[in-house]
Amino acid sequence: MFLEPVSDKCFTANVRPGKNTFGETLTIFRDEEDFPALEGFQLALVGVKEERGAVDNHGCADGADHIRKAFYKLFNHWEDLKIVDLGNIKTGKEISDTYYALNQVLTELLKEHILPIVIGGSQDMTYTMYQVYEPTGKLINIATVDPIFDLGNDNEGLNSHSYLSHIILHQPNFLFNFTNIGYQSYYVDNESIDLMKQLLFDTYRLGVLKQHIELTEPLIRNANIVSFDMGAIRAADAPGVKNASPNGFNGDDACQMTRYAGLNFKLSSIGFFEYNPHYDINSRTANLIAEMIWYFIEGFSSRQDDIPTQDSEDFKRYNVQIGDGEENVIFLCHKITGKWWIDMSYMHADDPRYKRHHYIPCSVEDYEQAMRNELPDKWWQFYQKLM
Fold first, then answer.
1. What does the pLDDT look like over 15-43, one tens digit per residue?
2. What's the number of domains the chain is made of?
3. Which letter does DSSP use for residue 47 in this model?
4. 309, part of any domain
5. Does residue 306 fall inside a structural domain?
6. What is the DSSP letter of 92?
């Protein structure tokens, strides 16, 4: 058994009038002798009490239960959704033991088609989340909301600031694309920015996205895994981070992005990391994470399979000629959800694993850019990946 039951201290008296809070309606692993059967569940909370891979954030191992306590007080509006709280991963003697335990739990959840919501601990757990997908034989995409790239230094061991390098160097490599949402330039050196460009990864500065938070939707829509570093939220809204920054996304932005994640039909795991209750003020950060999970569930409840396929009739098709006709960009717009995609299915890559990546999430702004006779950056970037 890799999991320990939810502590009784997570159950407190409700401070708001009303019925059907998550604490009342979830199936919760509370008794060591009564582990819930997984059949039929769609979402599962999994806590991680591990901080040995954290960089200068001692105390983040205590975050899961504080998040849980705040989440249990929120009201459940989705009676048809089956959600289970599986408690916390047992902390291993070595950190590798904790990684292994989390891997085994997430593997079982994905096998049962249950989406795990990982809470607590440090962001190096993202590497474990990535490893879980290796047996599928599929190329996957990761999106992180993070003020830095977490590339670490040469030959640095696995930790919360180096996990991305371990993902890049992992063999066999099955990462198709990585997207950083909201990096802050003063925390990132030029060499790292150049390396991300060379790897054809997506990187978007905080300042650009804060002006138009809706631009994060297609970035998140392309992800199988979303990893949220709470250090990406400004300290005023999320003080419960050891290295909190005065700048960052605000709480509304964070909830909007997690709602986008919930709506993403291809996303199959999400994690919230680096929260440190020892630096929190009046549980402000725990309450924000709880609300982010609430919005994720709201998005999940409204999911539609709006991913294009070759024979789908659910899309309007727009063929935009660029320049003298040397390149045509094909756009698809879903007739119901209104989401836009770039169709690159005409590119026949030798590797059949690329087939799932022939449709690139984009925005109406990308279509309008093409109409101005400008080739969208997304098209060129994925063209290079697929060639």
1. 677 789 999 999 999 999 899 999 999 99
2. 2
3. E
4. no
5. no
6. P
For the chain of 387 residues, list the mean pLDDT of each consecutive stretch of 10: 93 77 95 93 98 96 97 95 98 97 98 98 98 95 98 91 96 96 97 95 96 96 97 97 94 98 97 98 97 98 92 92 80 95 77 79 94 89 80
Distance CA 161, CA 163 (A): 6
**In a domain? residue 308:** no
Last residue in a domain, options 243, 275, 301: 301
How many residues can be counted in the chain? 387
Assess whether 351 and 255 both reside in one domain.
no
Q: What's 75's DSSP letter?
A: B
Which pLDDT does position 363 carry in this prediction?
A: 94
Tell which of 301, 331, 363 closes a domain.
301
Strands 43-48 and 202-205, bridge-based pairing: unpaired
Q: Does some domain include residue 307?
A: no
Same domain, residue pair 70 and 147: yes
**pTM score over 0.90:** yes
Dump pLDDT digits (tens) for 161-215. Answer: 999 999 999 999 999 999 999 999 999 999 999 999 999 999 999 999 999 999 9
Shared domain check, 146 and 295? yes
Task: Tell which residue, 31, 1, 27, 5, has the closest CA to residue 88.
Answer: 5
| Burial of 366 (C-beta count, 10 Å sphere; 0-12/13-18/19+) | buried
Q: Which of 114, 110, 111, 105 is nearest to 48 (CA)?
A: 105
Could you tell me the residue range of the domain that residue 376 belongs to?
315-386
* Pair of tokens at residue 7: 């502590």
